[in-house]
């Protein structure tokens, strides 16, 4: 997943690319919710990323232990743990990327929107601190319900006068990770070669995988496409049920979160053609936020890409997801402006 970094005689960090080397800038990344089920493996994966020079691990409890543990891994970044609101400022100052997996996860029988009452307030508080201490950072929102927490973050930043739509991302990478895995199994393709865009949002039918655009092409029958779509939409629930009350996806989410943060860092560093799907401010449909392929660059979003040609089945899926996604977005906006 990551390449190695060496240090030059002048103390600069150099990234090895085949026989060539190039210098990599210093980048500070914070994980908010770093002691949680996602936060801990995500902290480890970010510690393994050579593009990170400082890693700030923040939570309301237990971060000193997580930070001490991760800090012993012999990779480039310096790790610091921060615990409690008093230390949030230190955790955030100077950040280039802030990843937010803070908040409660689902239990069997719940939908993501059932997390709104607790997580909306958590996200609102953390985003107010981001607006204050690192207003230029790219924000990777993992906390659910993403369809509402991203609009909440946008409203908080607007109120603070710091909103830049290029810098706010709902992390939907896990949907693409699942779609690729499930498609590779059905298509009998090498999973490492598979690509599947997933658009819309991040809950139930708002998750719309575009298997008609999957590569390599497999010409799967319609019933397989429908089954793959349903499994991708229900992927989170599959894990919640298997964990039987002990939370939701953590390891696959940490992997997905690390992939997306790495893409953000590469974009910031000027690597060309970095494209990932993400839930961002959008004009791709009439909805103000929508997940689609996004080109990442030095300022965050460089281009929100269109949907491309859809099959009739996908077109119908797109139309049926809009009312739910619209309501979730509006719920987030209303919460941010009322509380
Ligand atoms: N976007 C996605 O694809 C995706 C995937 C999986 C999970 N999630 C969501 O991620 C969130 C976290 O899941 P988890 O399994 O890691 O939960 P968890 O309960 O294991 O961990 C959450 C962590 O957040 C911390 N926290 C709570 N309030 C905080 C605050 N104000 N500031 C900082 N930290 C705070 C807790 O102390 C805990 O350590 C959930 O909302 C879950 O639904 C999203
Ligand atoms: O399903 C959940 O509640 C967690 C997450 O959104 C997921 O997709 O795994």
Automatic annotation (TrEMBL):
EC number annotated for this UniProt entry: 1.1.1.37
List of residues binding NAD(+): 33-39, 59, 119, 142-144, 253
Domain (Lactate/malate dehydrogenase C-terminal): residue spans on this chain: 172-335
Cell compartment(s), UniProt: Mitochondrion matrix
Claim: Mitochondrion is one of the keywords in the record: yes
GO biological process, one term: tricarboxylic acid cycle
Main location: mitochondrion
GO cellular component terms, semicolon-separated: mitochondrial matrix
Domain Lactate/malate dehydrogenase N-terminal: 28-170
Catalytic activity: (S)-malate + NAD(+) = oxaloacetate + NADH + H(+)
Residues bound to substrate: 106, 112, 144, 178
InterPro entries given in the database record: L-lactate/malate_DH (IPR001557), Lactate/malate_DH_C (IPR022383), Lactate/malate_DH_N (IPR001236), Lactate_DH/Glyco_Ohase_4_C (IPR015955), Malate_DH_AS (IPR001252), Malate_DH_type1 (IPR010097), NAD(P)-bd_dom_sf (IPR036291)
CDD domains assigned to the protein according to its UniProt record, in alphabetical order: MDH_glyoxysomal_mitochondrial
Residues at the active site: 202 (proton acceptor)
GO terms assigned for molecular function: L-malate dehydrogenase (NAD+) activity
SUPFAM superfamilies: LDH C-terminal domain-like (SSF56327), NAD(P)-binding Rossmann-fold domains (SSF51735)
Entry's family note: Belongs to the LDH/MDH superfamily. MDH type 1 family.
Quaternary context: Homodimer.
Protein name, as recorded: Malate dehydrogenase
Organism: Gossypium mustelinum (Cotton)
Lineage of producing organism: Eukaryota, Viridiplantae, Streptophyta, Embryophyta, Tracheophyta
């Amino acid at each position: 997943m990551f390449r190695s970094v060496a240090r030059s005689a002048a103390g600069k960090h150099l990234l090895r690319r085949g026989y060539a080397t190039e210098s990599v800038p210093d980048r500070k990344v914070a994980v908010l919710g770093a002691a949680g089920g996602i936060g801990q493996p995500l902290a480890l994966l970010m510690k393994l990323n050579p593009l990170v020079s400082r890693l700030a691990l923040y939570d309301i409890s237990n971060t000193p232990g997580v930070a001490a543990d991760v800090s012993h891994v012999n990779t480039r970044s310096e790790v610091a743990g921060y615990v409690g609101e008093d230390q949030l400022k230190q955790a955030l100052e100077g950040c280039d990327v802030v990843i937010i997996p803070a908040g409660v996860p689902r239990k069997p029988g719940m939908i993501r929107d059932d997390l709104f009452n607790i997580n909306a307030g958590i996200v609102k508080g953390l985003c107010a601190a981001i607006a204050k201490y690192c207003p230029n950072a790219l924000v990777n929102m993992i906390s659910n319900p993403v369809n509402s927490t991203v609009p909440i973050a946008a409203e908080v930043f607007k109120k603070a006068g710091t909103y830049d739509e290029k810098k706010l991302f709902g992390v939907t990478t896990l949907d693409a990770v699942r779609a690729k895995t499930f498609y590779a199994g059905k298509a009998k393709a090498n999973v490492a070669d598979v690509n599947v865009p997933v658009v819309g949002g991040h809950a139930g039918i708002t998750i719309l995988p575009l298997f008609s655009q999957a590569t390599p092409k497999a010409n799967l029958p319609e019933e397989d496409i429908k089954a793959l779509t349903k499994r991708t939409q229900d992927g989170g629930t599959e894990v919640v049920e298997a964990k039987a009350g002990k939370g939701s996806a953590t390891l696959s989410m940490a992997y997905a979160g690390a992939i997306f943060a790495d893409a953000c860092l590469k974009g910031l560093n000027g690597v060309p053609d970095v494209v990932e799907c993400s839930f961002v401010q959008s004009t791709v449909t009439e909805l103000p936020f929508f997940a689609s392929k996004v080109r990442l660059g030095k300022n965050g979003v460089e281009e929100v890409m269109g949907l491309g040609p859809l099959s009739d089945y996908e077109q119908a899926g797109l139309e049926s997801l809009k009312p739910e996604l619209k309501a979730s977005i509006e719920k987030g906006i209303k919460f941010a402006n009322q509380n």
